[in-house]
Amino acid sequence: MLEPGNNDELPPIPGKRYFTIGEVSDLCAVKPHVLRYWEQEFPQLKPVKRRGNRRYYQRQDVLIIRQIRSLLYDDGFTIGGARQRLTGDEAKSDLSQSQQIIKQLRIELEQVLKILRR
Q: pLDDT, tens digit, for every residue of 99-113?
């Protein structure tokens, strides 16, 4: 998953393998209790749990959390809407359909421009 562009104000993700919930909280500007809640709501979030149920997030988890944060806080999605958006297949097909429409529109506009230049 790509890191959303509107997360520019967030700190860069260090090159570590695992992150604690406190580190992820700082990296994503989200409180730890919110992260624990999101784990229940988003099946994509599955941090590794070790001794004493300590959570260890991987880089991919941090990217997903940043995307969830962007959908909820910046784009105004509900939890259900964000969950649906993250399911992947629908989002990917929507993106490819949009790209095809844009390509077709561009071709048509270039044809109109050729006609107007005559």
A: 777 877 888 889 899
